[in-house]
Amino acid sequence: MRVVLADDPLIERVLDDTYPVWHEGLTRDAYSKWSRGQLRTPWGREHLQRFVLVDDAGAHVASLKRYRHPVRVDGRDGWMCGIGAVLTVPDHRGAGHAARLVEHVVEQSRREGALLAGLFSEIGTAYYERLGFSVMALDEVSVHVSPSRRAGSPAMLVRAGDDRDMPLLAAMHAVRAKEARFAMRRDTPLIHYAIAKKRLFAGLSTPGTRQLEFFVAEEGHAVAVAYVVLSQNQYGWTLEEAGDRDPAGARLGAIFQVLLAREPSLRDPVIRAWWPRGFPTPPQLTLANRCDPKDVFMVRPLAGGIELPPGPEGVFWWRSDYF
Questions:
Q1: Other beta carbons within 10 Å of 82
Q2: Predicted confidence (pLDDT) per residue in 67-88, tens digit
Q3: Are 154 and 275 found together in one domain?
Q4: Who contacts 254 (Cβ-Cβ below 8 Å, separation ≥6)?
């Protein structure tokens, strides 16, 4: 057995195996385009790799994706080995291949200087706890929007966001996440990647089933001062990420009011979010029904002196940061 970095032909063979598990309604061709599209973004080319465990005959038996996520832990800047899409080929399950591959990639990342490793588990916590990972608490909430005190939407300029806004979005995030014990360092390429990934996924889905919306509020000379990224499907809205230069978050709340005012005859959608406790609750919004996310975030320190926050109070993590 040996671990190799997958080239394009091997990636397609791996996608044949992962497609039945993670296609989320995409066709096989669209699923491949979604994978290739992520690798063609500037951030994806530099930070996303797929590792494969192959046997002596060259057949792959297990695979995973590794992300190099820039993070800050207790004021210490570095990177996290983000592990995703861990899968063993069905005919080879039960022999410990996935665990062997995870350990190899984690140890390689440790040698390369990673501060910690992280993953999202869909299969509970016991398996990854045996590999040294611990649960990192996050908050999932329902977001309720209060109607504007006047009929119609607030008198506020809201427009579609674009690439010129990305540096300002990164600056908003840096200010908000500054005091968190554990947070992603979300620079312009990473924010662009996160939005492009969701936009590509919606565009490749069956027409009319998914939508990605990216809006900013602007003031003077088209300067973005707040923003929101929302995924929409038949079940409602998911807040992917947001930001606001207003300490109270009032502009973000007004954006939600503007978006709901577009179709006043319809019932307000269900809105779910991973809401960092270090981010203010805008006065127009109410957060309710706090619970743990379905996909459990787990981390494993790789460098000395890394202590993880005991609860969600010290974690600043948006749904866009899922990997």
A1: 25
A2: 999 999 999 999 999 999 999 9
A3: yes
A4: 154, 156, 158, 217, 226, 282, 284
